[in-house]
């Protein structure tokens, strides 16, 4: 069925009850042959939604679907049903004096119908049902059933009167026929011939008139009897259809106490043994009450199912109480929902205590809020609700929910970390993408507040990083390598996204390390060799100073200044040689180079100058 008609009784049952065909002019066979639907004599495959075998509702905890009569009811996603169930959970148990009196009347009637009931008792049952209808929770169902019982009894009494009348008319017709035959026999006399040879029939004119009158009366009696018989057939069919339609309607509305009363009263009202349900073929009711094993549904079937549901409701409530005592609210909720799906109006559910229902209400609403929180990606709230469910339900399995929440929160935090890296790198597009990704995964991530502040400061950061990169390039051009290395933390975030500048900083670190090793070696020469150590240090440091990459290094300059006094003689000789060489006075320049070699025999600078000037003076290379 497209709609779960059991819950709210949607679909008017009266419109689905079979309408008997007009009686034939010459009825034959039993009356029920003319009013019972017979779709086909061949066996047909039954719909899975067949009523029998699915009388007890079952709830699937994985998807919150209750299965009843073969139909599936999604209680969690059906707003009307969810609201109705929540309303029930907030209603106090109805134990008022009126309610107790009402339940006493209904229970007494059910007990009374368990045994054979006479007509007078049925009439009293109808009156008691009318009395019970004054209770507000009855919904006037008792009045409708009481009226149906009284009307059905009236119909059967009318049928009985017409049947009795037909028997009396039958006797009258027999008497008339007997008298007519007697008169007819008495009137038969021998034919006589007159003088002219003609036959003369001697019959009494009075007897002939009486015979004709009797024949007319017999015909009238036959017509009356036929009319009574047709009226009985029609009234019996209509009474059954009308009564059964109410039973089906009560069943659809889950008024199972009334179904039991009406079904049991049916077999005493209609004593012909025909209890097959007259259901319109192809209707929703026909699909629900489908044949089982080739057997059509009967009124007795309704009685059996309603009784089963009634007993099951008592067992379900007992199970709910036990589960609540064990602090297993999830299982208790499922059991109560199964019972409520069919037994909303049964006494065990009506009298279920409010304090017990409130425990289920807390679990039910918390679980719904948990689902809504996860769907809306409010994982902080979802975690709180999940912890509450674990505290109140010892069987609550949070593995799926907690795993999902953990995965989503980690994904959001990872996106925020990527956004922070993009901010450091000055990558505005990447920053915006990662922030949007983090917000879409977890809109209420507390870390988003910090990210939003970072977004507000992004332009300032971009400007600041831009200035730092500009300053870095200027210092790079000025060969302030050691300063850049010493302050690399200041520039690192700004140049992190610039591969060229980042590579230059790595190169500076390598060069400075090399230079510092040279300076350290020079200082070691000075410390260990008092004769030539200063000369060795001077030439080592001067060679580094000659390299473009170290020409502006202040530490190197200070190191050179520190060895200058000790190497003053060598320095003077070398500078004088270079000056004379620059003036073209090669002989004088050579003399100064020779003097420098005399001061420091291993001088690379003196050797280089001598080797360069000697060929110019002698025209050939001079070997030492």
Q: What features would you describe in this structure?
A:
This protein is mainly alpha-helical and 624 residues long. Helices cover 68% and strands 2% of the residues. The chain is built from 25 helices and five strands. The chain has helices spanning 5-8, 79-89, 97-112, 119-132, 141-186, 205-252, 256-269, 284-288, 299-325, 329-343, 347-350, 354-375, 379-392, 399-425, 428-441, 447-456, 458-477, 481-486, 488-495, 499-528, 533-546, 554-563, 568-583, 586-599, 604-618, and strands spanning 58-60, 65-68, 71-74, 192-193, 199-200. A hairpin with a 4-residue loop joins β1 (58-60) and β2 (65-68). α3 packs parallel to α7 and α5 (141-186) runs antiparallel to α6. It is rod-shaped. Residues 25-44 have a biased composition (Polar residues). Keywords: Coiled coil. Residues 159-186 form a coiled coil. Residues 19-48 are annotated as: Disordered.
What proportion strand?
Answer: under 5%
Rg result: 57 Å
Helix and strand succession?
HEEEHHHHEEHHHHHHHHHHHHHHHHHHHH
Count of helical stretches: 25
Mean pLDDT: 77
The domain count comes to 4
Q: Which sheet architecture does the biggest sheet show?
A: 3 strands, antiparallel
Helix content: 55-70%
Give me the side-by-side strand order of the main sheet. Answer: 1-2-3
Region (Disordered): 19-48
Biased composition (Polar residues): 25-44
Keywords: Coiled coil
Coiled coil: 159-186
């Amino acid at each position: 069925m497209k709609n779960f008609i059991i819950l709210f009784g949607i679909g008017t049952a009266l419109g689905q009850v079979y309408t008997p065909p007009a009686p034939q002019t010459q009825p034959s066979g039993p009356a029920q042959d003319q009013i019972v639907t017979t779709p086909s004599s061949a066996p047909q495959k039954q719909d899975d939604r067949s009523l029998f075998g699915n009388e007890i509702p079952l709830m699937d905890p994985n998807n919150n679907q209750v299965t009843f009569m073969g139909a599936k009811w999604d209680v969690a996603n059906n707003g009307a049903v969810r609201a109705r169930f929540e309303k029930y959970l907030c209603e106090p148990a109805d134990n008022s004096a009126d309610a107790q009196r009402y339940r006493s009347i209904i229970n007494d009637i059910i007990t009374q119908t368990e045994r054979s009931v006479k007509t007078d008792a049925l009439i009293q049952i109808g009156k008691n049902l009318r009395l019970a209808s004054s209770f507000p929770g009855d919904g006037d169902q008792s009045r409708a059933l009481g009226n149906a019982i009284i009307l059905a009894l009236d119909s059967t009494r009318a049928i009985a009167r017409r049947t009795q009348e037909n028997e009396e008319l039958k006797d009258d017709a027999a008497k008339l026929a007997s008298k007519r035959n007697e008169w007819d026999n008495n009137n038969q006399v021998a034919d006589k011939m007159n003088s002219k040879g003609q036959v003369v029939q001697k019959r009494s004119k009075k007897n002939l008139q009486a015979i004709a009158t009797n024949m007319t009366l017999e015909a009238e009696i036959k017509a009356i009897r036929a009319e009574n018989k047709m009226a009985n057939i029609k009234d019996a069919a209509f009474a059954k259809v009308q009564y059964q339609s109410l039973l089906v309607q009560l069943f659809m509305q889950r008024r199972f106490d009334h179904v039991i009363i009406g079904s049991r009263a049916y077999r005493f009202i209609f004593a012909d043994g025909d209890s097959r349900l007259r259901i319109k073929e192809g209707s929703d009711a026909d699909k629900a009450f489908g044949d089982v094993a080739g057997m059509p549904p009967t009124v007795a079937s309704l009685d059996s199912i309603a009784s089963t549901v009634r007993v099951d409701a008592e067992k379900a409530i007992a199970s709910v109480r036990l589960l609540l005592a064990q602090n297993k609210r999830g299982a208790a909720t499922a059991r109560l929902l199964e019972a409520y799906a069919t037994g909303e109006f049964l006494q065990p559910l009506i009298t279920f205590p409010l304090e017990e229902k409130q425990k289920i209400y807390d679990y039910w609403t918390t679980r719904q809020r948990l689902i809504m929180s996860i769907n809306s990606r409010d994982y902080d709230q979802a975690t709180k609700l999940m912890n509450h469910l674990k505290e109140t339900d010892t069987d609550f399995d949070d593995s799926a929910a907690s795993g999902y929440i953990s995965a989503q929160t980690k994904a959001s935090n990872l996106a925020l970390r990527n956004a922070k890296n993009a901010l450091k790198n000055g990558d505005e597009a990447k920053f915006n993408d990662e922030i949007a990704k983090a917000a879409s995964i977890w809109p209420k991530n507390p870390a988003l507040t910090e990210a939003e502040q970072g977004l507000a400061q992004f332009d300032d950061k971009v400007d600041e990083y831009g200035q730092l990169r500009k300053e870095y390039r200027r210092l790079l051009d000025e060969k302030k390598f050691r300063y850049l290395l010493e302050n690399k933390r200041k520039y690192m975030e700004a140049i992190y996204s610039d591969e060229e500048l980042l590579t230059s900083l790595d190169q500076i670190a390598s060069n400075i390390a090399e230079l510092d090793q040279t300076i350290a070696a020079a200082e070691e020469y000075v410390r260990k060799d008092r004769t030539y150590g200063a000369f060795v240090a001077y030439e080592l440091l001067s060679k580094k100073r000659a390299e473009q990459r170290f020409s502006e290094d202040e530490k190197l300059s200070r190191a050179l200044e520190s060895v200058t006094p000790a190497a003053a003689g060598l320095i003077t000789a070398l500078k004088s040689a270079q000056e004379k060489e620059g003036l073209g006075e090669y002989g004088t320049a050579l003399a100064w180079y020779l003097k420098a070699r005399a001061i420091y025999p291993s001088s690379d600078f003196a050797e280089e100058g001598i080797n360069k000037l000697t060929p110019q003076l002698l025209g050939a290379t001079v070997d030492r």
